[in-house]
Design a protein that fits this description.
Radius of gyration: 21 Å
CATH superfamily of the largest domain: Periplasmic binding protein-like II
Number of strands: 12
Shape: globular
Structural class: alpha/beta
Strand content: 15-25%
Oligomer: single chain
Largest sheet: 5 strands, mixed
Length: about 400
């Protein structure tokens, strides 16, 4: 699967969409009530959802309810049952589309999720490393202690993807497991591990940076094509990003090329009303100046920063808004068609799988599904990306 940033042409085209101003906002039919899910209270995703809710209230009189949830299953369940229209997701939205990890259970399977807008700001997401570990490049992590979180396969997959950039696998490092994300990052301070995955602007990474061990972020230059090919085989949702904010001395004067993916990722199910999603997207485009500075990361929702060639297809309502803004291209449509084909292949494979006699045992069920999933994607010429590895 080819993943490219695909946003360069948007800079000029997006200006036309913003010129309409507040007068246009009055004609956007945002529902009088919206419900969206997000990460836990206090997270950047939750804070951004609340900030957008205030904008919807100010511009459209819309009452927005934000439901905090501690994991991807809890964030998607209200949308799946129709109790929420939108969600401010992390990269778990991609794992849900693919039907892997926790979504490879008989209760879930691949989910037909669609993008609305996603935030790409000044931060990156990678392995932060204690300064005293003697690591300058990602490949130097060989033999070092790397944190994993029990029951968080998405987080652990991200760490494996960064290791792959350096030509490493889990076998080349010492994996140390922790019960939760916070405990893992405390593990660096306590000299139990040397590296852990996070956003460069996370509070945990800043805490380590201020500790006696200190923190640095080994670079992942975009010009190392073989390294990026290895990384995208494990985490195809990553792309290279010039990071200008965060712990470890990252700033505009000291930028570093690191991996990144959007967060939060505002998304909806494919069957969500196209009119609702169109109105939400249109409002976010037109009223960008009114919320861009309201909370950290909100500036990343700018139209010109949207990636038209990422790993999830856009919602029909968003496509309509993008076409009106003049940013939807033939290349974007071709990529969209490929991703919809992928979702359809996964849905068909899942329907066939559960109609049969899948194993009752949880692990056996997952293994059998992953075999079926690979066969279905291979049959239509698409990269399975994930294969059974438990």
């Amino acid at each position: 699967m080819k993943i490219t940033l695909g946003i360069k042409p948007l800079a000029m085209l997006a200006a036309a969409a913003l010129a309409a101003g507040s007068a246009v906002a009055q004609n956007i039919d945002v529902p009088k009530s919206l419900t969206m899910t997000a990460y836990d209270t206090g997270s950047s995703g939750f804070n951004m959802a609340v900030a957008l809710g205030k904008m919807f209230k100010d511009k459209h009189g819309t009452e927005t309810r934000v439901l905090p949830a501690g994991n991807d299953i809890a964030r998607l369940a209200p949308m799946r049952t129709g109790r929420a229209q939108l969600s401010a997701m992390g990269v778990g939205v991609y794992f849900a589309q693919e039907g892997v990890f926790e979504f490879g259970s008989k209760e879930w399977g691949p989910q037909p999720l669609r993008l609305i807008l996603a935030s790409t700001s000044c931060n990156g997401l990678s392995l932060g490393v204690a300064k005293d570990a003697g690591v300058k490049e990602i490949k130097d992590l060989r033999g070092k202690r790397v944190g994993n979180v029990i029951g968080s396969p998405a987080l652990n997959q991200n760490a494996l993807a960064v290791l792959a950039y350096g030509g490493l696998t889990a076998r080349d490092v010492k994996i140390v497991e922790f019960s939760n994300y916070g405990a893992m990052w405390k593990g660096i301070i306590n000299n139990e591990i040397d590296a852990a995955f996070a956003s460069t602007i996370s509070g945990q990474s800043r805490e380590v940076d201020a500790s006696p061990r200190g923190l640095l972020w080994p670079p992942a230059p975009a010009n190392d094509k073989p390294a990026w090919e290895r990384m995208r085989k494990v985490g195809p949702y990553f792309y290279p990003h010039k990071v200008t904010c965060g712990s470890g001395g990252l700033n505009k004067e000291n930028p570093t090329e690191l991996p990144a993916y959007p967060y939060p990722i505002f998304s909806a199910y494919a069957n969500q009303s196209a009119d609702v999603v169109y109105a939400v997207t249109k409002s976010l485009i037109v009223n960008y100046d009114d919320y861009k500075s309201s909370v950290a990361g909100a500036d990343g929702l700018e139209l010109k920063r949207q990636n038209l060639a990422w790993v999830l297809p856009y919602h029909d309502g968003t496509v309509r808004a993008f076409k009106e803004a003049g940013v939807w291209t033939a290349a974007a449509q071709a990529h969209q068609d490929m991703l919809v084909k992928r979702q359809n292949a996964l849905a068909g494979a899942w329907a066939d799988f559960v109609k049969g006699t899948p194993p009752g045992d949880k692990d056996a069920f997952y293994k059998a599904w992953m075999v079926k999933r690979k066969q279905a994607l291979d049959a239509v010429g698409l990269d399975p990306v994930f294969e059974y590895s438990r």
